[in-house]
TrEMBL record:
The keyword Kinase does not apply. It comes from the Archaea. This is Carboxylesterase, type B. The lineage of its organism: Archaea, Methanobacteriati, Methanobacteriota, Stenosarchaea group, Methanomicrobia. The keyword Lipid biosynthesis does not apply. PROSITE patterns: CARBOXYLESTERASE_B_1, CARBOXYLESTERASE_B_2, PROKAR_LIPOPROTEIN. One of its GO terms (molecular function) is cholinesterase activity. Keywords: Disulfide bond, Hydrolase, Membrane, Transmembrane, Transmembrane helix. InterPro entries: AB_hydrolase_fold (IPR029058), AChE-related_enzymes (IPR050654), CarbesteraseB (IPR002018), Carboxylesterase_B_AS (IPR019826), Carboxylesterase_B_CS (IPR019819), Cholinesterase (IPR000997). It comes from Methanoregula boonei (strain DSM 21154 / JCM 14090 / 6A8). Pfam families: COesterase.
Length: 508
C-alpha cells in the first residue's frame, strides 16, 4: 500500500507498512533544498557550490509517433519527485558534436528537455533569466550539450536555461500534407516552436527557481542567433522574453553564401523530394514517414562533402510559413516589425574561417560559384575578392562570408533595432584564443561565456565578456564594468564595441 506525505509543496511517495507510515524517505526529501515544484511535478537537482543545477527537465511531450512533425504538446504530469541530475538525450543528428573534456550524449527522438542553473536561495529572489539556444546550422548541436554549462554565467547572479530543440528533418521538414494537418496551413518550423515552448515553460515555472519571468533574455549563437532574430518578429514569441542577444546569426534570405531561410514553396519542394527518397508518396505519405526510424531519417538527409557546402546548402531550416515566420527577416526588419526591446547584436571577427576552411574550390570553380550567387555582379565581386589559387579562394570565401553574411547582417538588424529602441548595442568579438590559427572563429566567444574547461584563455577577457552579457541581462545595458562606455548603436554613428584584450569603441 502507498500513501502520499506532504511537506510544503514537496510531494513524496511514502511506504505504508502494516498501517504505519515510514517517514524516513519523506523527511529526507523535505529537507532537500534542491526540490522545486514545476507545473508538471516536482524535480530534484544538484547543489554545486551554491548553484542549484537541474538537468533534463521535460518541457514538452516526447515528439514521437503521431506527435512527430507536430507542434510540441504539453508534458504529462508526474507524481513524486523527478530526478533532474542528468542531461536529456540529444535530438537526432548526422554527427554528434564533441568538445575536448565533455562526454558525448546519447541521441533520441525523445529529446525535448531543458536545464537550469540557479544561484537563487529563495523563490522570492526574482533573479534575471538567460535562455540559450545552441547553434549548428539547424542540423546538429554545435558541441555537445555539456559544453553549455551555465555555471560561469550563474555565478554572476543570473539564472541560466539551456534547451534542446528539434533539428534537421525532424525539426524543419515542410510538406503540403503536413500543411493540411495544421490549422495554420503551416509546417516545417517545429524547432522554433520547441524554442517557444521552452520560453513558455520559463514563463510558467522559472519563479519557482527564484527567477523573474518579466526579465528573460534570450541569447544564442549561429543558428541560435538566427532563431533569436526570428523570435524578435514571430507573433508566437511576443511576451515570452524581454531582451535579446544575437551572436553571429545569419539573417538574409538570400545571403552571399548562407541562406538564412527558405520560401514555403522551396521548403515544401524539398520535403516532397525527401519523402520520395524514403519511399513515401501518395495519400499516406506522412503516415509512412512517421513509421521511419529516426536513424533512417537522419541517414536519408542529403549530406555535403564539406563544412562549407553544408553551410551553403542547408535543406532543413526555418521557412516563411506565414505563421511562425510571417515574411523574410529582411522584409520584417525593414518595416520595423521586430519587438522594441533591448538588444545586443554582433559577430566574430573571423566568423568565415572555419565555415569556409574546406571549400576546396579552384579558381574556375570559384568564378562559377560567384556567378551562381551574384549573377551579373559576379565579375565585380571577383574584382573585390580576387584569387589566383585554391588557397586564395578559400581565404576570399571566408572574407565574403564574414563581410556579407555576418557583418552586413549585424549592421542591417542593429540599424533597424536602433531606429525603434535606444537600447541597441552592436559588438565585434576579435579576441583570439591562444594557438588558434583561424582567429576569432565562429563560436569562439562561447568558450569564454560558458567557461569550457581545458582551453587556455585570458581570464580578464573571459571575465569581461561574462560581465557584459550578464549586466545586459540584469539591466538592459551592458555598461558599468569597463573604463569605457559602450555607446548605443545608431545608423548615423555606426559605433560598436570591439571585444578584445583591451575593449575599444570603433566606428563604421
Amino acid at each position: 500500500m502507498q500513501g502520499i506525505c506532504r511537506a510544503g509543496y514537496i510531494l513524496a511517495v511514502c511506504l505504508v507498512i502494516a498501517g504505519t507510515v515510514v517517514l524516513s524517505g519523506c523527511t529526507q526529501q523535505a529537507q532537500d533544498p534542491t526540490i522545486v515544484k514545476t507545473d508538471a511535478g516536482a524535480v530534484s537537482g544538484i547543489n554545486q557550490s551554491g548553484i542549484r543545477v537541474y538537468l533534463g527537465i521535460p518541457f514538452a511531450a516526447p515528439p514521437v509517433g503521431e506527435l512527430r512533425w507536430k507542434p510540441p504538446a504539453p508534458v504529462t504530469p508526474w507524481e513524486g519527485v523527478k530526478n533532474a541530475t542528468a542531461y536529456g538525450a540529444t535530438c537526432p543528428q548526422a554527427q554528434k558534436g564533441s568538445v575536448p573534456g565533455t562526454p558525448a550524449l546519447n541521441m533520441s527522438e525523445d529529446c525535448l528537455y531543458l536545464n537550469v542553473w540557479t544561484p537563487a536561495t529563495n523563490a522570492s529572489d526574482k533573479l534575471p533569466v538567460m535562455v540559450f539556444f545552441y547553434g549548428g546550422g539547424f542540423t546538429g548541436v554545435e558541441g555537445s550539450m555539456p559544453m553549455y554549462n551555465g555555471t560561469t554565467l550563474a555565478e554572476k547572479g543570473v539564472i541560466v536555461v539551456t534547451t534542446n530543440y528539434r533539428i534537421g528533418a525532424l525539426g524543419f521538414l515542410a510538406h503540403p500534407d503536413l500543411d493540411r494537418e495544421s490549422p495554420h496551413n503551416a509546417s516545417g518550423n517545429y524547432g522554433i516552436l520547441d524554442q517557444q515552448a521552452a520560453l513558455k515553460w520559463v514563463q510558467d515555472n522559472i519563479a519557482a527557481f527564484g527567477g523573474d519571468p518579466s526579465r528573460v533574455t534570450i541569447f544564442g549563437q549561429s543558428a541560435g542567433g538566427e532563431s533569436n532574430y526570428i523570435h524578435l518578429v514571430s507573433p508566437g514569441s511576443r511576451g515570452l522574453f524581454s531582451q535579446a542577444i544575437v551572436e553571429s546569426g545569419p539573417f538574409f534570405a538570400h545571403g552571399a553564401i548562407i541562406n538564412a531561410t527558405h520560401s514555403k514553396d522551396d521548403a515544401e519542394q524539398f520535403g516532397v523530394g525527401y519523402a520520395q527518397s524514403l519511399g513515401c508518396a501518395g495519400p499516406d505519405t506522412i503516415a509512412c514517414m512517421r513509421n521511419v526510424s529516426p536513424d533512417a531519417l537522419v541517414n536519408a538527409t542529403p549530406s555535403s562533402p564539406s563544412e562549407f557546402w553544408s553551410t551553403h546548402t542547408v535543406m532543413f531550416e526555418p521557412n516563411i510559413d506565414g505563421w511562425v515566420l510571417p515574411d523574410t527577416l529582411d522584409n520584417l526588419y525593414l518595416t520595423h516589425q521586430e519587438a522594441a526591446v533591448p538588444v545586443m547584436i554582433g559577430n566574430n571577427a573571423n566568423d568565415g574561417t572555419t565555415l569556409s576552411s574546406d571549400a576546396n574550390m579552384n579558381v574556375s570553380e570559384y568564378r562559377s560559384f560567384l556567378a551562381s550567387r551574384f549573377g551579373s555582379n559576379a565579375n565585380a565581386v571577383f574584382a573585390q575578392y580576387p584569387a589566383n589559387s585554391t588557397a586564395e579562394v578559400q581565404l576570399q570565401l571566408a572574407q565574403i562570408m564574414e563581410n556579407a553574411d555576418f557583418i552586413d547582417s549585424v549592421k542591417f538588424a542593429a540599424g533597424s533595432a536602433g531606429d525603434i529602441s535606444q537600447d541597441t548595442y552592436m559588438y565585434r568579438y576579435s579576441y583570439i584564443i591562444p594557438g588558434q590559427p583561424e582567429g576569432a572563429f565562429h563560436g569562439s566567444e562561447l568558450v569564454l561565456l560558458f567557461g569550457v574547461p581545458g582551453i587556455n584563455t585570458d581570464p580578464a577577457v573571459a571575465d569581461n565578456i561574462v560581465d557584459l552579457w550578464t549586466r545586459f541581462a540584469k539591466t538592459g545595458n551592458p555598461n558599468g564594468g569597463m573604463n569605457i562606455t559602450w555607446p548605443n548603436y545608431t545608423r548615423a554613428t555606426g559605433q560598436y564595441l570591439d571585444i578584445n584584450i583591451t575593449p575599444s569603441v570603433k566606428g563604421p
